[in-house]
From TrEMBL:
This is Tyrosine-type recombinase/integrase. SUPFAM superfamilies: DNA breaking-rejoining enzymes. It comes from Schleiferilactobacillus harbinensis. It comes from the Bacteria. Belongs to the 'phage' integrase family.
């Protein structure tokens, strides 16, 4: 049973529980209730949660603190830099949206407002990713019996429509114009132009193109092998492809092979002038 006491002009409750980590009896209290009945009702709510196996010791943990601990324990160091950046971005949103608010006090109404505020100037894709990360955290919190309801369930995504698929890619005429411009500006001092040309003729991702070295090019058969990626964000060097199926050797246009061959020759001459050898 909870202990109800009056402290000055206010009422306080104290609920006793056994700490599962130590086996020792502990208590959780809260004061400041104007009426005894309010203190009894609040204590009863905590007692009910305790009867359902709630982790009482963590009932006061804030939403932001739990999310921060959750990504530290289960996400960081396990995914790509870009994915981990998203987890941290969501942490900042939670910190700003629910400053000091216990996780146990978040309900669907509060969460919906938070998500709608974010959706006002963000795309549906960003809103969906944010909600997906938080939902995963909520389900873990439920399995740990810190909360008992999924406040992310059934929320609507009111984000702004993203770009149409047709707007994400160049059409044939635009691609031809881009190719012509790039080929006119090819220069050994502007490697980016060669990277763009390679992207046009291969369709490879930038991290794959940045990992191409001369030994990956078969000049005779006009082929390029894409078997690794380059970490251009943190510049930590080469890394594995996303999946084994991403490793491939592709046939490429003679125009690309010719341009890359010219670059190779120009680099060799430059290296010889400087006294370098490949």
């Amino acid at each position: 049973m909870a202990e109800i006491k009056k402290r000055g002009s206010k009422w306080q409750y104290r609920v006793f529980y056994t700490d599962p980590a130590t086996g020792k009896q502990k208590s959780k209290s809260k004061s400041g209730f104007k009426k005894k009945t309010d203190a009894i009702a609040a204590a009863r709510e905590l007692e009910v949660d305790k009867e359902h196996g709630a982790t009482i010791s963590e009932r006061d943990m804030t939403f932001a603190d739990y999310y921060a601990q959750w990504i530290k324990d289960t996400k960081l160091g396990r995914y790509s830099y870009q994915t981990e950046t998203w987890y941290k971005r969501v942490l900042k949103l939670v910190q700003e949206g629910f400053p000091g608010v216990p996780l146990a006090q978040i309900n669907r109404r509060k969460y919906t407002k938070f998500l709608d505020d974010y959706a006002a100037d963000h795309s549906k894709e960003s809103v969906d990713k944010t909600n997906t990360f938080i939902r995963a955290m909520v389900r873990d919190a439920m399995s740990e019996r810190i909360i008992f309801t999924d406040f992310t369930a059934g929320v609507r995504n009111n984000g702004n429509p993203g770009k149409r698929e047709a707007d994400k890619y160049l059409n044939e005429n635009q691609l031809k114009k881009l190719t012509d411009v790039v080929e006119k500006h090819l220069s050994p001092t502007a490697i980016t132009t060669y990277e763009i040309l390679t992207a046009i003729y291969t369709g490879a991702r930038y991290e794959e193109i940045a990992a191409i070295t001369w030994d990956r090019i078969d000049w005779d058969h006009k082929q390029i092998t894409l078997d690794r990626a380059y970490d251009y964000v943190q510049r930590s060097g080469f890394k594995s492809m996303k999946t084994p199926n991403s490793i491939r050797t592709i046939d490429v246009s003679p125009r690309l092979i010719r341009a890359l061959s010219q670059l190779h020759t120009q680099q060799q001459k430059r290296y010889m002038q400087l006294g370098y050898r490949e």
